[in-house]
Design a protein that fits this description.
The chain is α/β, with parallel strands linked by helices. The protein has 13 helices and eleven strands. It binds iron/sulfur cluster.
Length: 339
Amino acid sequence: MKAKIITLPYGPHHFCEEHFIQFFEKRVKKTINKNKLARFGETIAVGVSGGKDSAVTLSLLDKFAGKHITLKGISIDEGIPGYRDKSIDQAKALYKELDIDHIIVKYKDSFDYSMTEIMQIKQEKGLAQKSCSYCGVFRRTLLNKHAREMKADKLATGHNLDDEAQSVLMNVFANNIPRLARTGIINGLEKNEKFIPRIKPLYFTPEKEVEVYALLKKIPFYGELCCPFSSGVKRNVFRTAIDEIEASLPGSKYALMNTLQEIQPILISHVKQEALQECTQCGELSSASVCKACELITKLKMSSFMKNSKKHAPQEKQGCSCEAKHDLSKGIELASSIK
Ligand code: SF4
């Protein structure tokens, strides 16, 4: 009998290396096929940061649908030296290994500021907006824009079960029902030719298992450090809370996502989604006359001309604060030989 090296508490399932890989791939393949995430002849753009989630997403889309679809990579460079440059190096290694066309898009070229410069302005001028609020808006805008320019039918992202469970809780606690209604394996209720539907092949796959799979399959990915601007982000509160619930009650993340899937048709039928329009400044999609990205850039530019604020907004701590994210020992038992 083969040695059991991996235990998943929510089953509980015990796997050897080979059978864990089979189990993992079967679940992702089922998510792709059941939800028709990749149809014959489609072009799918994949947002690849170089982290484990997007690396596994690209690898498995290539493995399961590569013969029938065209895959293209988009890597967004936020301009965070020592972090994103290293992860993009891993993304490039994967593109090369899989022979996939790709582009690298810099915030600096698109919005005039890198994230590092934005953080400097924030601190000098005492701006209260969180780093990820800028970054998330800019990334979504660029991914949609460049996927559309590639003539992609869909945009795949590496969001996993943990990301999605956190987002559900965040939307519940923010009372953001419209966003809760439109999140899913295929994101967005928007019907607009400028909007590229986003697909999530890892929707039912726990984050820790993605890392184990990437290590076992020797998929190149960057996993040494988190973003230096991620300390204190709201998502970390929900990550810790939901990981603690999962540790006490294995299977809770799946239960939460199943609940969402069951109530989502009711939410969709009752929630009025905002109509999308084109931003009067950049032409990208927006729910208001000026899109969020242009609004943020305008504020940054105006702040640059202002005197430094005497009354500073609370400063964001810098550094990575998500120990739980890196602690593979929680919720999954692994043989030490994997690394
Ligand atoms: Fe951007 Fe925040 Fe992610 Fe850092 S943690 S890359 S600032 S969204």
